[in-house]
Amino acid sequence: xxxxxxxxxxxxxxxxxRAHRERTTPExxxxxxxxxxxxxxxxxxxxxQISGISTTWYTWIEQGREVSISAAALARLxxxxxxxxxxxxxxxxxxxxKNPQARPAAQAADxxxxxxxxxxxxxxxxxxxxxxxxxxxxxxxxxxAGWLERDPQPNLLRFMFLHPLAxxxxxxxxxxxxxxxxxxxxxxxxxxxxxxxxxLVLTLxxxxxxxxxxxxxxxxxARQGGERRFQHPLRGQICYxxxxxxxxxxxxxxxxxxxxxxxxxxxx
Length: 268
Fold this sequence. Notes:
This protein starts with 9 loop residues before the first helix and ends in an 8-residue tail after the last strand. Helix 2 crosses helix 4 (about 70-80), helix 5 (about 85-95) packs across helix 10 (about 175-190) and helix 11 crosses helix 12 (about 210-215). Strands 2-1-5-4-3 form a five-stranded antiparallel beta sheet. The chain has helices at about 10-20, 45-50, 55-60, 70-80, 85-95, 115-120, 140-145, 155-160, 165-170, 175-190, 195-205, 210-215; strands at about 125, 135, 225-230, 235-245, 255-260. It is of the alpha+beta class and about 270 residues long. Strand 3 and strand 4 (about 235-245) form a beta hairpin. It is about 40% helix and about 10% strand. The protein has twelve helices and five strands. The chain has two domains: about 10-95, lambda repressor-like DNA-binding domains (434 Repressor (Amino-terminal Domain)); about 115-260, Beta-Lactamase, CATH 3.30.450.180.
C-alpha cells in the first residue's frame, strides 16, 4: 500500500523544500562549480547561507520539525530556489504563513453557473477543487463520449490516469498528464485540509503508478491555457484553445472552455 505524503504541515513543507533544493544547481544561484559533488543540487548549508538563515534551523525545517518560520524567511528561500509564482504560493500555504502578495480569495459560488455552461457554443465544463465534473454541455459530452455519459461521478484526474480512453483521446497524453499533476498540486495547497482531497490523492497514488511517480516529484505549475489536441474516434484530430476562468464569487470552481481552432492552410 502506498503511503501518502501529507498535503500540508511541516512534513510536506520539508519534502517540498528538499525536492527543489536538490534540483537547484550551484550554477543557477551563482556559486562556483566544484568537482566531486555527491549531488548536482545545492547542499543544505549552501541554501541556508544564500537565504540568510542558519544551517541548523533550515535542516530542522527540511526534516519536518515544528519550527516557526516568517514570511520574510520564506520569501528568501523562494528567491534562492528560483520558485515560480505558483510554487511560491504553494510554499507559503504549506508553511501556514500568509503570503503578502497573495491574491484575495473570492466568495460564494454563483447558483447560475451550470446554466451558463450549457449556453456555451463550444465544449465547456465546470470543475470543483477536487476536479470533479459538476456540469458540462453537450459539446463536452460529444468530445468525451465513452466517459462522461457512463460515469456517475466523473472526475477529471481519475479520467486522465485511470480511464483507458484518455491515452487514445489526448494527443501527447504523457506531457499533458504530467503537467496536470503539477497544476493539481498547486491547487491542492488551498484545500489541503480537505479529507476528500486527501482520499482522492491516496487513491490515485495507489491505483496509478504514473500519477504516483509524478506526484512525488513535487512539481508545481500554475494552470495554463493554450493548445489542446484530441484524436476523436469520429471526427479525427481536433485542435482547441483552452481557456480556464475562475467565476466571480466562486473561488473553488473552474470554468473550462475549449474553443476550436481552424488550421491555416497555405497553398504554394
